[in-house]
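Predict structure. Chain length: 113.
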Amino acid sequence: MKLVIAIIQPHKLEEVKEELYKSDINLITVSEVLGHGRQMGVAEVYRGAKETGNLLRKVRLEIAVNDNFVEPAVKAIIKGAKTGEIGDGKIFVLDLQECVRIRTEEKGSKAIG
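Prediction complete.
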């Protein structure tokens, strides 16, 4: 089991979700976050408003997947999020030690679904 964490541009969220759904990956958590990478907070336009300062609006996706869905998840995120410009984001893949479904108390890969 793995936890895939992706930091992407907010305007690419719908495209990334569509690509994930095409790969049969439906269980995601989405958070709005602030941050910057190497561009050090260069101004960008978000929903028609110019954002300046050190921290830029980003979207964080967290996706728990079984091992056979790691590569499809990563490819789907890249396909949906990539613009080829600085600030497209990052993907992190972490080992997931345990997962428990609260309702049924199933554990491990069965709990992920």
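Summary: Residues 17 and 80 are 8 Å apart (CA to CA).
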